[in-house]
Structures are given as structure tokens and as C-alpha cells.
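in:
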């Protein structure tokens, strides 16, 4: 699922970059030679694609950080539950020992 979303996002970013590059080329094509137009088109497309990749990476890192923090929280909760259950077991064993000692004291 994560890989599918990543591919979709990159595709959308690619299409948006190409669209804005195309619009810019149409505006420039009225007054510029073909060579300059091609150079501008490559620059606009590559800068738009780089910017979209940067934005994607920033959003991905933020999401990844939030996910890792959530996982750590779940791990802490499970550790707390494990510690609590082990404390209960220790207390139960102490109670059993004390009960046996009380029974022996009452008999003897």
C-alpha cells in the first residue's frame, strides 16, 4: 500500500511539473527562439520536478517520524503492561509464601 501511494504521488508530481512547464513554454514561445525555448523548458521542468521531489521528501520524513513515535508509544505501553503483570505475579508468589508461613506458624 505504501509503495502504491508513493508511486501515485510521484506520478502526480511529475504530471503537475510537466503541466506547469508546458504552460511556461507556451508563454515564452511567442517571443523566444526555438533553442532558448528548449533550454528554458528543460530548466523549468527540471526545477519543478526537483521542487516537487523536495516537498514529497519533507512530507514523507514528517510522516515517517510521526509513525515511529507512535510505534515507540505502543512499545512503551506493552512494556508497562508486561511489567505490571510480572509485578502481579511476584506479589502473588509472595502472598503464597506468606500464607504457607502462616499455616505453619498456626500448626506449630
Amino acid at each position: 500500500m505504501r509503495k502504491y501511494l508513493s508511486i501515485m504521488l510521484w506520478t502526480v508530481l511529475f504530471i503537475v511539473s510537466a503541466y506547469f512547464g508546458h504552460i511556461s513554454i507556451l508563454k515564452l514561445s511567442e517571443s523566444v527562439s526555438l533553442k532558448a525555448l528548449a533550454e528554458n523548458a528543460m530548466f523549468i521542468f527540471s526545477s519543478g520536478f526537483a521542487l516537487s521531489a523536495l516537498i514529497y521528501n519533507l512530507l514523507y520524513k514528517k510522516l515517517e517520524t510521526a509513525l515511529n513515535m507512535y510505534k515507540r508509544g505502543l512499545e512503551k505501553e506493552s512494556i508497562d503492561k508486561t511489567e505490571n503483570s510480572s509485578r502481579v505475579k511476584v506479589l502473588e508468589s509472595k502472598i503464597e509464601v506468606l500464607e504457607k508461613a502462616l499455616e505453619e506458624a498456626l500448626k506449630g
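note: Residues 2-107 form one domain.
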